[in-house]
Give the backbone structure.
Amino acid sequence: MSKPILAYGEAMVEFNQRIETPRQYLQGFGGDTSNFAIAAARQGAVSGYVSAVGDDHFGQDLLDLWRRENVDVQHVSMEAGASTGLYFVTHDAQGHHFHYRRAGSAASRYRAADLPLQAIAGASALHLSGISLAISESACEAGLAAMAQARAAGVTTSLDTNLRLRLWPLPRAREKMAAALRLCDVCLPSWEDVSMLTGLNDRDAIVDQLLAYGVKLVAFKLGQEGCYVATSEQRRMVAPYPVQALDATGAGDCFGGAFMAELMAGRDPFQAARYANVAAALSTTGYGAVQPIPYRDQVEAALTAAA
């Protein structure tokens, strides 16, 4: 069996608005690193999740979801007395908006002592996000310890910047994200996040700073513009895949999971980015973070049609 791509963070149950009046919601699932793990699995990668869920109905729903999606759950614990996080997505002319109910969740209680260090050392890649580090002090310590363990074992580390200032103040986010970037091989930033974290507004200046931390590969997600892939040797725009988007929830997470699945399968970064652009675009043609994530055959069919 291939070595797994592991993701660490918090998964949540999602309620995504479908009808304005009266307001109705479609129940689904989210959480950026969980979306990532599912996207990687749907592209054919061996995928696993490292986290905790509450000992409640929603926690069991998440475990059932991952099992259906072929995401290994042996390193997900179910915590008695803790809740599973929830969030709501509403839509208006300005886009989609998130409303969270996650305080004191099982994942936020995760500690470095809970980490499956042997499994991390045996992975092909370990993925985290800014949210993985922001949900609590103990979860942040655990995330950085996981990255250090992966780095020591020669495991590729990837980091999505995902900055949520409702979870932590900007000075702390900059401090802890800088620590994570020093342990990061592949950075998957989005414009608003990384420009705020770095204080820079020029794309190449931002890439220069990320590479200066020791990052080896940057796949800069630029939405409808595509993405900008950079290493120390070359930089190149990778074209977007045009679709009629309905809901962009989780599209960046889908990009990350597809990109890392392709990268770990031996594709070069530009091939991986083209594939991930298509996967992310297709994920916006349905509602919710998980249900619209495409499978490999759908992405390959779209790539063939676009050739």
User: Anything to note?
Assistant: The chain has a mean pLDDT of 95. The chain is about 40% helix and 25% strand.
